[in-house]
Amino acid sequence: MVQMQSRPTGTAPVPRTVADAMEAAGPQVCDDMTVEVALSVMASARTGHLLVCDDDGVCTGLLTQAQLSAVRDSSVYTDRVQLRDILVDPRPFTSPMTTMAEAEHSMRYRRLDALPVVDEHGNALGVLALTR
After folding, report:
1. Could you give the 3-state DSSP secondary structure of residue 15?
2. Beta strand 28-30 with 49-53: parallel, antiparallel or unpaired?
3. How many Å apart are CA 6 and CA 45, to the nearest integer?
4. Which helix (H) or strand (E) holds 124?
5. Which of 34, 37, 44, 17 is nearest to 84 (CA)?
6. What is the pLDDT of residues 36-82, one digit of tens each?
7. pLDDT surpassing 50 at residue 2
């Protein structure tokens, strides 16, 4: 048996926000961590990305396994390279109140697979990941 509920006429649908679709923040690491340790953390957590934070806990960016591997495999790599050294162009962030339509458009335009979701103080709340 299927029960139908009618929607009152004149009521506009509420747009979904990033808060409705974001994943838990997952592993957050400090920007003074080395690339090797970050890759190890990522492997242990079985995730494809890490949120990078500064000493005050403010999210400074997101790094993917592909980005970290590319740095490690480069000819200029040393075991002293820290995450802050490779976050020269931090990724954009989004608010949990951003509509999904706006966030999806922004991510597709910038060709991003994941986008950090931060509060008004820059603290990481989660990650919005697109399915391609």
Report:
1. coil
2. parallel
3. 45
4. strand 124-129
5. 34
6. 999 999 999 998 889 999 999 899 999 989 999 999 999 989 999 99
7. no
Q: What is the residue range of 44's domain? A: 18-129
Alpha helices in 1-132 (DSSP H): 18-21, 35-45, 65-72, 83-86, 100-110
The residues near 10 (Cβ < 8 Å, ≥ 6 apart) are: none
| Cα–Cα dist 22/126, whole Å | 6
Torsion angle in degrees (nearest 10) through CA of 87, 22, 123, 115:
20
Kindly state whether residue 112 falls inside one of the protein's structural domains.
yes
At 36, list the tokens: 């090797």
Once rounded to an integer, what is the mean pLDDT over residues 27-44?
94
Q: How many domains does the chain have?
A: 1
Computed over its alpha carbons, how large is the radius of gyration of the chain? 18
Tokens linked to 34? 């080395």
Q: Which CATH number is 69's domain given? A: 3.10.580.10
Q: Mean pLDDT, the chain, as a whole number?
A: 86
The DSSP result for 46-64, as a single string, is T-SEEEEE-TTS-EEEEEE
Q: At what angle do helices 35-45 and 65-72 cross, to 10 degrees?
A: 140
